[in-house]
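User: Predict the complex.
Assistant: Input components as received:
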Amino acid sequence: MSLIVQKFGGSSVADAERVFNVANIVTDTYKAGNSVVVVVSAQGDTTDDLIAKAKEINESPSKREMDMLLSTGEQISISLLAMAIEKLGFPVVSLTGWQVGVHTDSNYSNSRIRKIDHERLQKELDKKNIVIVAGFQGINRYGDITTLGRGGSDTSAVALAAALHADLCEIYTDVDGVYTTDPRIVKNAAKLKEITFDEMLELASLGANVLHNRSVEMGKKYNVNMCVRSSLTRAEGTIVKEVVDMEKMMVRGIAKDSDVARISICGIEDTPGKAFRIFTLLAKKSINVDIILQSIGRDGKKDISFTVTETNLEEALRLLEENKDTIAYENLSWTKDVSKISIVGAGMVSNPGVAAKMFEALYEAQININMISTSEIKVSVLIDSALADKAVRVIHDKFDLA
Amino acid sequence: MSLIVQKFGGSSVADAERVFNVANIVTDTYKAGNSVVVVVSAQGDTTDDLIAKAKEINESPSKREMDMLLSTGEQISISLLAMAIEKLGFPVVSLTGWQVGVHTDSNYSNSRIRKIDHERLQKELDKKNIVIVAGFQGINRYGDITTLGRGGSDTSAVALAAALHADLCEIYTDVDGVYTTDPRIVKNAAKLKEITFDEMLELASLGANVLHNRSVEMGKKYNVNMCVRSSLTRAEGTIVKEVVDMEKMMVRGIAKDSDVARISICGIEDTPGKAFRIFTLLAKKSINVDIILQSIGRDGKKDISFTVTETNLEEALRLLEENKDTIAYENLSWTKDVSKISIVGAGMVSNPGVAAKMFEALYEAQININMISTSEIKVSVLIDSALADKAVRVIHDKFDLA
């Protein structure tokens, strides 16, 4: 007998029919002799509807009250799923975040889980109940309801799996696993059987929206066996774990990220402390900088280019303009017409030819590279957005990922 | 400085505009230097919508899961009202039933409040916060969410007022007070300035749907100063308290109850134990019997008539028919075409002429009385339904209640 945590997103429980689809998956797992803990998100558009209700009354409500409001979404879905499972004739109980004992910090609307007091949950499992848990929510030291922010339900599921030492944490989504690249771009993209946490992290942060980074980080930290699969096809998904057979495939997947803007600061005086000053300025406003490229100084001047997300572009430019005198640069340029293409694979570090092979594919397709960034398991290039899909295809072919 | 508990029903917070209307009443009370605790019900049709969602999945869900679902309705309204009050620039915090510490028994969907641990609430009041509390809900010894059943939010408000030793508990409804009778029947019905708990109890149980009985009983038990008023007109309402000036008005109000059916069991053997047998039979099935009339035995036979609510009629008849042999009666007759008209007033007991005056009014209008029932503060008569409104009018005139 295994203990399995299953997580279902909002679209998986959007209406009565889908709720029963989930109820069937859950009860099939239970019938197979497993203990089952189910984490559910709010139904379909519930969260958006609640946000609209709030905005009608107050454009900028306190985050505490917003969490009080939004947490009802998951509370509705857990009770409905429990009712569906009751209807199928199985013992079930639903629990909210505070009932489960998901303790978080007090950073309303974007809380971090501190610990899980799973006494109540364990008691329900001992009684042979299927336990339905509200994802995305917790309780802080003041006894107030908090929410975990984007990807919160994934994080709830993985945290519960870690706390309960579950044998497996299944994340059900509307895709049936992790692919070598976006199947909408490359038709013969292949589904991966396995992937490491690190690779998953790189792919997630690069725009392969399957699992939220926070949940993967937590999975890695507590070594939770995770699995991504579809609630509709029930096909075998992709296992996410610490180590996979690295020899077999150096490049695991290719990701495209179009939410990228490049800023270039030109004619900066070539003295120490410039980069420090620029990036501290941006960090203070929580603007995340991705690829950074600094030219070699020439004639006492240098250039610094870097990328930010498109939503952060405007504020980054404003900050840089306001501080033109302190930074002391000549001019500022920027573009949104760039995309980041990345190859990810844990085996890459020991295979020096990988980056070169990627560049070769791009050269053959006459695609110009703007910027390059590398990590132990990733090579990213910044290219013209118009050529992004083509780039993904030629690299996919080059590495024979189909 | 006073501590005031204000309760607003679902229609008072049905949309954004009404939420702001309530926010204005609350903040005006706060601005006047009072500490304010606000109890809110679920918005307009929210509860019905949630019930419909549940029924789509399971016709008879467990009451525990139903309470889990329905309690989200009040959680939504408290957060929205808090956001409106934030918008008006006042310090506010919303609290659910479990956060307030409303401890109940485990009779899901119809729980009774056991005690209120108001430590958190008091702490918020000490911080000069306006406190918005979710009505209708509590928590049981297992840490599960419970709901209080019909009239639950009124009960929450009165219980909180009692626990906090509030100076006043204002119940805001869509009527602006308690009237001498239904203003839809008698145009010149007068609004009462004051009424006793006992009178209010009799009026509530007789169909004057202003306050739920449970809340009035609790108000009486803990001697809470209560007040019924309208959230729309803000007019001075009706004070409900332990003692009012009894000399001033013997008859406080007139109530009509049309949800009445009369059953007559004729030709029962005139031996001891018959009434016991009949009413035990009905009590076992939770069928409430109201007026009972037993004829004097004649020729070794007697008749027993009594009233039940119309919803209970069918089951009562079935029970009596099934037990015809044990009860040993000749025949059964029944009618739904009856209404109960009652006059209520705490001063009645010391004024023997009151009942006679009521009967005189009915005689003058040629209205026949079927059955009569009296208590210390009430006289009820059963009459033909078609004449019920007329009866209310002539009695109202007779006692000069306008």
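The mean pLDDT of chain B is 90.
Let me know if you want any component modeled separately.
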